[in-house]
Amino acid sequence: MTEHTNKQFDADLEGVRSQFLAMGGVVEAMIQDSIDALTNGDLNLVDKVREREKDVNRYEVDIDQRISYILARHQPTAIDLRMLLAVSKMLTDMERSGDEAEKVATVARRIHEAEIRATPTVDLRHMANRVLAMLRQSLDAFARLDPVQAAQVVRSDKEVDKEWKAALRQFISFMIEDPRTISPSIDLIFIARALERIGDHAKNMSERVIYMVRGADVRHTGAKNAERQARGEEENTETT
Fold it and tell me: Residues annotated as region Disordered (predicted)?
């Protein structure tokens, strides 16, 4: 490549990175607002989440087009190619995280507008804060090309899964003990499930960061192996 072409290539790559991080910031705000709408009853936040979901969709289309342009024009190799392929996959997870946040906001509106008194008291804020932290950490790992931090996110997903199962057991108990809680319990199960899926998407993106930096595909190989690969150690097929 000529020096001019190199500079343009670097600028195009940085444009993709910057846009993806900006998209992640919008999704973070959506998750926070949807949980605030649930806990505080501020239904104006629901409308904000829905507007931001449109921004997320625009980001997805624009970044996808940028990646296609770079691949066609520059034919990148090695880590640059892995970065573009990783972001291409991460886009889907980020967009779906935004979709889940919108679902939480929509159900939050339904719960508060229904004004049902027999609402089960299960605090989902801890679970929400955990998945929000996972998303932030995955974005930070991407920005700093830090596979070790990405592996920590993969490990954190196990705790989110435990919280989801514990919440589900609580809701089932409420519905058995008091049939009046069935409708709101189902709504809250829907929210807990959406949060659990956001955690899954954050984990998926973190696995892509490890692939981007180390060139190792750690999907379906377990958290321990992801941590080994992140540190640059030999692959282990143990699925724990």
Answer: 221-240
Helices (H), 78-181: 78-114, 125-144, 147-177
Per-residue pLDDT tens over the stretch 180-231: 888 888 999 999 999 999 999 999 999 999 999 888 888 877 788 888 888 8
pTM of the model: 0.89
How is residue 124 annotated by DSSP?
-
Show the domains of the chain with their CATH numbers.
1-231 (1.20.58.220)
Structure tokens at 10: 């670097």
Contact 150, 207 (CB under 8 A): yes
Q: How does DSSP classify residue 219? A: T
Cβ neighbours of residue 121 closer than 8 Å, sequence gap 6 or more: none
Q: What is the dihedral of CA 68, 69, 70, 75, to 10 degrees?
A: 80
Distance CA(148)–CA(29), nearest Å, equals: 25
| Nearest one of 180, 185, 194 to 131, comparing CA atoms | 194
The residues, ordered by sequence, that sit 6+ positions from 186 with a Cβ below 8 Å of its Cβ are 171
